[in-house]
Input
Amino acid sequence: MDGFFRLPNRVVRGEGRQLAKKVMSLSRLYLIDIEPFAFSVVASPGACLFEVVCRAGIDLLAVCGGQGICGECSVIVLDGQVSRITEEETEFLTERHLRKGYRLACCTRIQGPVKIYIPDRTLASVPTGPIKMNRA
Ligand code: FES
Output
């Protein structure tokens, strides 16, 4: 299952956040914190980080459409569990970037709760409008 829904900040802060984490651990879903936008989405194990971010309403630069061949969808994994670095990533990201946590979103799979930061240069547009709940 590759589903997710966006959680309003009031749900994922304080005690609500602890409750959300408990519910998600029981249902095998993970909380994905997205900075600098200060909101979170829920994703299933194995979900593609690129798809999770796009479905959250954030447009990443992606000339290749998520095929791992343009190197434009880099995000920083600040904390959490994600898949191993792929060959495609080592082609586009320097050793220094990899040490800092840069990953190609389209080559990265969710394996646990994750906190990411999306650099300005990776954004195709900034999300606007009210937060909506989605489920794929
Ligand atoms: S979208 Fe092109 S490498 Fe990720």
About this structure: The chain has a mean pLDDT of 84. The pocket of FE2/S2 (inorganic) cluster is lined by residues 62-64, 66-73, 104, 106 (CB under 6 Å). The two ends are 9 Å apart (CA to CA). The domain at 6-125 is CATH 3.10.20.30 (Ubiquitin-like (UB roll)).
